[in-house]
C-alpha cells in the first residue's frame, strides 16, 4: 500500500520531471524526494524513472502507475476539498427542519439572516412533525431543527433558547376551566392530561405532562397524540387537557378548544437542536444567526 507522502512525491515528480522543483512544491528537501522515490522503487521492484545528469523521464512502469493513480488521487483531493468547503460553510446545502407554524415563521427570519451572511450556502427548509425531529436528525435527512425544548438525549445538542412563551392549558370549551381567567399547576390534579408520544425524550414529555403537581398530588394521564392537531382534536372531544404555548391561541384557534393561562408554570421554550457529531461550521453559523436575530435584529444582518 502506498503511503500518502510517497504517492504525492511520485505524482509530483512525474509532472515536474525535476527533483528540485518537486522538492519546492512539496516543501521538503531534494534528498527527501530522492530517498522517497528510491524506497518506492525498491518496494515495486522496477525503476519508475530513468535518470541522467540532464533529465528525468518516466519508465514504462512509472507511466502506467501515473496514468492509473492520477485520476483517483484527483477524485480524493476534490472530495476532500468539497468536504472542507462544506464544513466551513463556504458552499453546499444546509437542511433545516421546523415544527409548527410559529417555529416556521421564526425560521424564515433566521434563514434570511444566515443567507445574508453566507450567500454561497443554500438553505432548504422542511416541516417536521414533533416525533420526526430527532429521527430526521439521526438519519441525516436534516442538519438542524427548530423545535420545542427540552430535547435532552445522548448525542443531541440543544442550542440557546430562542423564544420563551407563556404556558397555557388547552381545555374543551365546555370544561369548567374554560370559564376561568387562569389556572394553576395544582389544577392539573383535577383533570386528565393528554400525553406526548413515548418516542419523544423523557425531558420533553415530563415538561408537558408531569406525573404530579408541585404539591405532590397525582395527575391522571390520558392517551397520547402524534401531532399537535390530533392533540387539540382530542381536547375538543373531551378526552383531556393539554399544556401548550401561548402561540396556539393565534395559530390554532378552534371553536371547541379554549386556552387558559397558567399563573405559576414555567414558560414554554423553543430553540435549535442538532447532532453533536453534526456540529459543522454551517450549523454553528445558523445557530448564531438565529440567536442574533432574536436578541437584536440589526445584528443578524
UniProtKB/TrEMBL annotation:
SUPFAM superfamilies: Periplasmic binding protein-like II, Winged helix' DNA-binding domain. Residues 1-59 form the HTH lysR-type domain. The keyword Ligase does not apply. It comes from the Bacteria. PROSITE patterns: HTH_LYSR. InterPro entries: LysR_HTH_N (IPR000847), LysR_subst-bd (IPR005119), WH-like_DNA-bd_sf (IPR036388), WH_DNA-bd_sf (IPR036390). It holds the Pfam family HTH_1. Keywords: DNA-binding, Transcription, Transcription regulation. Belongs to the LysR transcriptional regulatory family. This is LysR family transcriptional regulator. It comes from Streptomyces luteolus.
Amino acid at each position: 500500500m502506498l503511503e500518502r507522502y510517497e504517492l504525492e512525491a511520485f505524482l509530483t515528480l512525474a509532472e515536474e520531471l525535476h527533483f528540485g522543483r518537486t522538492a519546492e512544491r512539496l516543501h521538503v528537501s531534494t534528498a527527501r524526494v530522492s530517498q522517497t522515490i528510491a524506497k518506492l522503487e525498491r518496494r515495486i521492484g522496477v525503476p519508475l524513472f530513468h535518470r541522467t545528469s540532464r533529465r528525468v523521464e518516466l519508465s514504462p512502469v512509472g507511466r502506467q502507475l501515473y496514468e492509473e493513480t492520477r485520476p483517483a488521487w484527483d477524485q480524493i483531493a476534490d472530495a476532500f476539498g468539497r468536504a472542507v468547503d462544506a464544513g466551513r460553510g463556504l458552499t453546499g446545502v444546509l437542511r433545516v427542519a421546523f415544527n409548527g407554524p410559529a417555529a416556521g415563521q421564526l425560521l424564515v427570519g433566521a434563514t434570511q439572516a444566515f443567507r445574508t451572511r453566507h450567500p454561497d450556502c443554500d438553505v432548504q427548509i422542511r416541516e417536521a412533525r414533533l416525533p420526526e425531529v430527532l429521527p430526521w436528525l439521526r438519519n441525516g435527512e436534516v442538519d438542524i431543527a427548530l423545535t420545542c425544548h427540552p430535547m435532552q438525549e445522548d448525542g443531541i445538542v440543544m442550542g440557546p433558547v430562542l423564544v420563551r412563551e407563556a404556558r397555557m392549558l388547552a381545555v374543551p370549551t365546555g370544561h369548567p376551566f374554560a370559564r376561568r381567567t387562569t389556572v394553576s399547576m395544582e389544577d392539573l390534579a383535577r383533570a386528565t392530561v393528554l400525553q406526548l408520544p413515548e418516542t419523544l425524550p423523557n425531558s420533553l414529555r415530563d415538561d408537558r405532562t408531569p406525573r404530579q403537581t408541585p404539591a405532590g398530588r397525582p395527575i391522571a394521564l390520558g392517551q397520547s397524540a402524534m401531532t399537535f392537531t390530533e392533540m387539540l382534536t382530542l381536547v375538543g372531544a373531551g378526552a383531556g387537557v393539554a399544556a401548550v404555548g401561548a402561540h396556539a391561541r393565534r395559530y390554532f384557534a378552534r371553536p371547541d378548544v379554549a386556552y387558559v393561562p397558567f399563573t405559576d408554570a414555567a414558560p414554554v421554550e423553543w430553540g435549535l437542536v442538532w447532532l453533536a457529531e453534526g456540529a459543522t461550521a454551517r450549523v454553528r453559523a445558523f445557530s448564531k444567526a438565529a440567536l442574533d436575530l432574536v436578541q437584536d435584529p440589526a445584528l443578524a444582518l
